[in-house]
């Protein structure tokens, strides 16, 4: 019986390896992420977080699709390699944020969580993940797509442009002085690029992309008269660098919780 159990274990490991290899081959032509990592903002001692950031930078992103379905059912249709890197990250604690409101305090809350975990509780490898959907996901599209599709019509009045992807001048302050009230760890730089350099992973929901495409078509913000699937594909292709595309926010949250991420909203 022991031999049979060991053989089953070997076969299971082999099958998983083959599946991973197949995904890798299928994505060979996908481009790697190019998130802003040139000026790291992780604290001294965050060796495992820095390693994760590097692996995520190297993981491919699929941003050349021409049409997408309403429900994705194949790992090739989302950023599977990057998602698996996050799910495999083991240093604790890890926190996943369920972010839905563009105009809410979500970036500020994640920044405060990072500051407390890193400097108060001495967890330099703390990982925060934003599972982003609803209007909050509008912040994950680049300005070019905001302009083309007039995404401000889906956002609140205070967002005439995507200001959350613009880093503030405080980013140039000395990162060694984490107590600087005007520095990169302060509320003066609640931006997506700054949080990415601190190791925060932003995930974009395919279902939200599909819903945004539907809303834009209904509003008449479809200058090329594209199909629903083609508009959703173009939104997907214009996610900001470094974002991880997932099949759905509500469905991915349990996957993260299952491996030990603490839920926050």
Written account of the structure:
The longest helix is centred in the first third of the chain and has 25 residues, at 2-26. The chain has 265 residues and is an alpha/beta fold. β3, α4 and β4 form a beta-alpha-beta unit. The strands form 2 sheets. A 5-stranded parallel β-sheet has the order 6-5-4-3-7, sandwiched between helices. The protein has 9 helices and 7 strands; from the N terminus they run αβαβαβαβααβααβαβ.
Keywords, separated by commas or semicolons:
10% strand; 9 helices; single chain; 265 residues; disordered N terminus; alpha/beta
The whole-angstrom Rg is 19 Å
Strand order, largest beta sheet: 6-5-4-3-7
State the end-to-end distance. Answer: 47 Å
Strand content: 5-15%
**Quantity of strands, as a count:** 7
Report on the biggest sheet: 5 strands, parallel
What is the chains' assembly state?
single chain
Number of helices: 9
Q: What's the mean pLDDT score?
A: 88
- Helix/strand-derived category reads alpha/beta
pLDDT below 50 for ≥5 consecutive residues: which ranges? 1-29
């Amino acid at each position: 019986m022991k031999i049979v159990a060991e053989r089953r274990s070997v076969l299971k490991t082999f099958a998983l390896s083959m599946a991973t290899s197949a995904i890798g081959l299928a994505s060979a032509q996908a481009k790697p992420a190019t998130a802003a990592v040139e000026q790291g903002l992780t604290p001294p001692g965050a060796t495992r977080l820095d390693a994760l950031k590097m692996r995520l930078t190297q993981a491919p992103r699929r941003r050349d699709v021409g049409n997408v379905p309403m429900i994705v059912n194949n790992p090739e249709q989302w950023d599977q390699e990057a998602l698996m890197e996050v799910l495999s990250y083991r240093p604790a604690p890890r926190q996943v944020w369920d972010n839905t409101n563009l105009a809410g305090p979500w970036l500020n809350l994640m920044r405060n969580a990072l500051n407390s975990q890193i400097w108060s509780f001495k967890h330099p490898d703390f990982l925060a993940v934003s599972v982003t959907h609803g209007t909050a996901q509008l912040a994950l599209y680049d300005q070019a797509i905001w302009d083309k599709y007039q995404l401000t019509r889906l956002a609140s009045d205070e967002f005439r442009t995507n200001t959350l992807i613009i880093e503030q001048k405080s980013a140039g302050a000395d990162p060694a002085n984490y107590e600087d009230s005007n520095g990169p760890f302060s509320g003066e730089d609640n931006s997506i690029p700054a949080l990415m350099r601190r190791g925060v992973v932003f995930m974009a929901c395919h279902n939200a992309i599909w819903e945004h495409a539907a809303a834009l078509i209904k509003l008449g913000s479809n200058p090329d008269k594209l199909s629903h699937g083609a508009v959703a594909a173009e939104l997907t292709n214009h996610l900001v660098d470094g974002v991880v595309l997932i099949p759905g926010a509500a469905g991915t949250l349990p996957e993260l919780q299952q491996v030990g991420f603490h839920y926050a909203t």
